[in-house]
Design a protein that fits this description.
2 copies of one chain form a homodimer.
Chain A: H1 3-13, E1 17-20, H2 38-50, E2 56-58, H3 61-65, H4 68-85, E3 90-97, H5 101-114, E4 119-122, H6 128-135, E5 141-147, H7 154-157, H8 166-174, E6 183-187, H9 195-201, E7 207-209, H10 219-226, E8 233-237, H11 239-242, H12 250-274
Parallel strand pairs in A: 1-2, 1-8, 2-3, 3-4, 4-5, 5-6, 6-7, 7-8
Protein name (chains A, B): Orotidine-5'-phosphate decarboxylase
EC number (chains A, B): 4.1.1.23
Keywords (chains A, B): Decarboxylase, Lyase, Pyrimidine biosynthesis
Chain lengths: 275, 275
């Protein structure tokens, strides 16, 4: 999917919501556990109930790897289901991969070609040749970790270098890489005040923002500084949506929560368009 | 496996060789391609031929993910084969994972419990709470990326912060984390001169050193500064060993290459013990 298609979808749905499919068998409704593939069945119902409110789905691969082969089968079925039934949806493999050049190419092929995700999250620590193999794929998007919303996020990302904090150096340096137009960036929502500085460095790129909801970030604060003329934001919510209910009506409850966020987003987009 | 068992194995085998099981179907002998599981068959023969010369095996997960479900099955069979037939061998999942707390716990369970690896490589960018969930496992080892041997390695790792280069800050900070005695560090071999500084910060921890051989690092140079009284090094070679041959005798050729490295290591250990 190219960026224009993503932008067009945001405009049509009046939403920039990404739903995190972080499926934990200990948290899903117990009646699903008797299904042959409870993880996929859970995802399928969540997707069917929310696809008109969300523009992106983001399975975090850790939750699938934790169930071994069965988990990978469920991940494959989930991405295939989205691509077949809702091909307009932008898909993100939240894998946070990164390795030396030829090995990064293997990861890129796994997520972009075999699984046919539109994008994958990548860690910057190993530098240019660990990320550029991902950037080489046409109409695929590499979402680089910049500033993360977890407690230890600033341990290294916040270190002041000769020029500026490490996460700003990551943003600036990444812009110099080959095919940097295929980049997006992960920026944690618990630090809304940082978005102002970040938008000065990357005014046009999409930012994937986890941490709204359960992790404590505030949507209005993020949008105040993070929105650009193409929206430029994908706001992720995982637990707040997918675990809103815990009985046979769980998918409807998820839809209700997604609807609340979509409505808030519609207002924000409307206000922005009014100028 | 605890650290004493690893040290004891190094002393018995007079080797600190780690063999990287980075299996690429385009590079393995073609007669294996008709096997039902060519990746596992390749690994099995390499392992059977080299287990007495190596103290560790390190499959890089990218090479397995690239083949989807089949790849994960091959990885699972490989680690089970090592654990059953050669339980004295130290196993490393070269996965370079890292995510926020509860998600890192999922990865840790996947590699330490389900697959029963002795260790996993982890990226530091997300800080303390992305690594500590791995460190919480008893007799399991978390091998943190510090300085990597790829071209872009210094893009960020070499950035000078207020105190010192980023990779040194990673080493120093990691030592303050809970259960830091379960840490090892990845340090690239192409930068042997860095080992002197690194050993001042982490004199006692094991260092996993990729980049000897195909990537251009020199074993003698690394050992000069990197060895400590418990050896403290695991030197990895992947392509130089596993692709030494490309016909039915490939495993013997791999053994020959592993033997050469083991012999060199035996001399180095002998010299060190003399004084």
């Amino acid at each position: 999917m190219n960026k224009l298609e993503l932008i067009s979808q945001i405009q049509q749905k009046k939403s920039f919501l990404c739903i995190g499919l972080d499926v934990d068998l200990a948290k899903i409704p117990t009646h699903l556990l008797s299904e042959s593939d409870p993880i996929f069945e859970f995802n399928k119902q969540i997707i069917d109930a929310t696809h008109h409110l969300a523009v992106a789905y983001k399975p975090n691969t850790a939750f699938y790897e934790a169930y071994g082969i069965k988990g990978w089968v469920a991940l494959e079925k989930t991405i295939n289901y989205i691509n077949e039934k809702y091909p307009e949806i932008f898909t993100i493999a939240d894998a946070k991969r990164g390795d030396i050049g030829n090995t990064s190419t293997m990861y890129a092929k796994a997520f972009f070609e075999d699984l046919n995700f539109d994008s994958v999250t990548v860690a910057p620590y190993m530098g240019s040749d660990s990320v550029e193999p991902f950037l080489a794929f046409n109409n695929k998007h590499t979402i680089l970790l910049a500033l993360t919303s977890n407690k230890g996020g600033l341990d290294f990302q916040g270190l002041k270098t000769d020029n500026s904090e490490l996460y700003k150096e990551v943003l600036k340096t990444a812009l110099t890489w080959k095919n940097s137009e295929n980049l997006m960036f992960v920026v944690g929502a618990t630090k809304a005040e940082y978005f102002k500085d970040i938008r000065q460095i990357v005014p046009n790129h999409f930012l994937l923002v986890p941490g709204v909801g359960a992790q404590g970030g505030n949507l209005q604060d993020v949008c105040k500084y993070g929105l650009n003329n193409n929206c430029g934001l994908l706001i992720n919510s995982s637990r707040g949506i997918i675990y809103a209910g815990n009985d046979k009506g769980f998918a409807l409850k998820a839809k209700d929560e997604a609807f609340k966020l979509q409505q808030e987003m519609e207002q924000i987009l409307h206000k922005k368009s009014q100028g």
